[in-house]
Amino acid sequence: MDRPAHEHPAPTHRPAPTHRPAPTGRASAAGRRSRRTLRERLVLAGAVLLTLVAGAAPAVAQSVSDGVPVDVVGPQATVLSADAGGQGRIVEAFGDVRRARNIAVIVPGVGWNAELLRDEQGAGRRHPAVQARSLLAEMQRSSPQTPAAVVVWLDYDPPAGIDPDAARSDRAVEGAPRLVSFIDHLPRSGRVSVVCHSYGSVVCAHAAPHLRVSDLVAVGSPGMDVWSRSALRTRAEVWAGIAPDDPIALVPHTRVEGFGHAADPTSAAFGAHSLPVGGAHGHNGYLVAGTDSLQAIASLATGGRPR
């Protein structure tokens, strides 16, 4: 119970100060080591963040400038959900999801929001709508008799650019349950694959243990916050690929004080299947017509295996 303003607590008896012995050499050395360890960890965390920013900046700069208009024939986007919360979230479908037997879900990375996704004027190859139509066309070529659809899932708040958010996993952790929920509500008769690009692969990684999907594909990934494929705890087949000239490869694969996204999912030690990436260039070239990566992802999405 609060005291009235005029009332003061009764004074308490304070014992006479006692003499404290000087710290022993062992105790003071332990304190110095503790302070040094904390200082070193903070310095290392700062260095990792700086390297992440410097390493990933070319990838994002390339993404922003990757805007040469691309004309890809395909269906208009159907908005499945839209939410003004956060930076503006949206989920769009290309093709009839209700009838589809093969469904691919694309999870984009840094820099996207609902407003940008809706704006297809002069859309280049980095635009998720262009990528979705390219993938849908390839899926239809792979399995022409089977109804297919591609979904662009942006029901999370990606980092807006190269900043501490991009080096951390908070945005991914926050969005992962919504990805799980969305996929859970897709038709049970459909075969579902998830295609995770760049920071989107971090979202997929945190959702992985609960995703009802056949294949999980990570392309241009900075890491998936785990050190091995088994740590994803998923029954899905996990595939990973990176183009030789994708600048995201400059990002250090480490994790210090919450910064960094751990191992390279394309490394042999990680344990994922290797996704063919022949013909793919830069950070946004994985779903471009004529590339081995597009053909491989479409093959997986239609129940096949990469050639």
- Give the terminus-to-terminus CA distance: 74 Å
Q: What kind of sheet is the major sheet?
A: 8 strands, mixed
Helix and strand content put the structural class at alpha/beta
Please tell me the overall pLDDT. Answer: 84
Query: Largest beta sheet: what is the strand line-up?
Result: 1-2-4-3-5-6-7-8
CATH fold annotation: Rossmann fold
CATH class type: Alpha Beta
What can you tell me about this protein's structure?
The structure is a single chain. The protein is α/β, with parallel strands linked by helices. The protein has a single domain (42-301), classed as Alpha/Beta hydrolase fold, catalytic domain (Rossmann fold, 3-Layer(aba) Sandwich). It contains 7 helices and 8 strands. It has helices at 25-65, 114-118, 128-142, 164-167, 170-184, 200-207, 292-301, and strands at residues 78-83, 89-94, 102-107, 148-154, 191-197, 215-219, 237-241, 273-274. Strands 1-2-4-3-5-6-7-8 form an 8-stranded mixed beta sheet, with helices on both faces. Helix 6 (200-207) links the parallel strand 5 (191-197) and strand 6 (215-219). The longest helix is centred in the first third of the chain and has 41 residues, at 25-65. The termini are far apart.
